[in-house]
Amino acid sequence: MKKKDKNKPVAEPELQEAEPLEPEVSDAPAEEEHVATAEEWQAALELAVKQRDEFKDSLLRAQADFQNFKRRNQTARSDGYDDGVREAIAAMLPAIDNLERAIDAAEKTEDEAAKALADGVKMTLNTLMESLKRFGFEEVPALGEEFDPEKHNAVMREAGEEPGKVLEVFQKGYKVKDKIIRYAMVKVAVEE
User: Fold this and answer.
1) 174: buried, middle or exposed (CB in 10 Å: 19+, 13-18, 0-12)?
2) By CB distance 3.0 to 4.6 Å, which of 75, 106, 152, 156 could disulfide with 187?
3) In 3-state terms, what secondary structure has residue 162?
4) Beta bridge partners of residue 114, listed in sequence order
5) How far is it, in rounded angstroms, from Cα 140 to Cα 129?
6) pLDDT in tens, 134-182
C-alpha cells in the first residue's frame, strides 16, 4: 500500500471550454414585425376603457354589498339582544304577579306582621320594577282606557255607560320598548 503524501497537491480535472452556440439559421424567411394601425390602437383603448368601467362597477357593487351586510348584521345583533331582553323579562312576569298578589293579600288582613311583611315585599317589587325600567320595561295602561286589541285581551264584557272602555283588569299587560310581551286581560264595557 502506498502512503498518500499530504503535501502533494491534488491534480484538478481539466475543464473543457464550451464552444459558443451559434444561432440556428433556418431557410424560412423572417417574419416581418407587425406595426399596429391607429384603428387597432383605438379598438384596444375602447376595450380597456370598457373593462375598466366593468371592474369599477363591480368594485362599487361589492362595496355596497359589504355596507349592506354590515348594516344587516348590526341590525340582527341589536334585534337579537332586544329579543333576549324581552324573553328574560317575560320569564319574570309570573314572579312579579305573585309579588303583587302577596301585597294585595297582606293589605287585606288586619295582622300588623303581615302588613310589615307587605312593606318589605313592596320594596322588593319596586326595586325589581326600577331595574327592569332600564331595559324599557313598562306596564300597558288598561283600566279606564279605550279597548285596543293591539294592547288588550278582552276576556269578559259587561253592559256599561261607555262602550269600548276597559272596566276591570284581571292581569296586567307589559311592554318592552314598544313591543308587547304580555297583553292585559280585561273586562270591556259594551252597549246595553
Assistant:
1) buried
2) 156
3) coil
4) none
5) 14
6) 999 999 999 989 999 999 999 998 888 888 899 999 999 999 998 999 9
Between vectors from CA 175 to CA 188 and to CA 177, what angle results, nearest 5°? 140
Question: Average pLDDT of 51-60?
Answer: 94
Query: What mean pLDDT comes out for the span 107-117?
Result: 85
Q: How many CB atoms lie within 10 A of CB 41?
A: 10
Which strands make up the sheet holding 173-176, listed edge to edge? 137-140, 173-176, 179-182
Which residues, 6 or more positions from 186, have their beta carbon under 8 angstroms from its beta carbon? 142, 143, 147, 152, 153, 154, 155, 156, 166, 167, 168, 169, 170
Q: How far apart are CA 46 and CA 43, in angstroms?
A: 5
Range with top average pLDDT, 6-10, 24-28, 91-95: 91-95
Task: Please enumerate in sequence order all residues whose Cβ is within 8 A of that of 158, keeping only pairs 6 or more positions apart, or say none.
Answer: 167, 187, 188, 189, 190
Report which secondary-structure segment, H or E, holds 1: none
> Domains of the chain (ranges plus CATH)?
54-135 (3.90.20), 137-192 (2.30.22.10)
Helix ranges (DSSP H) in 108-165:
112-133
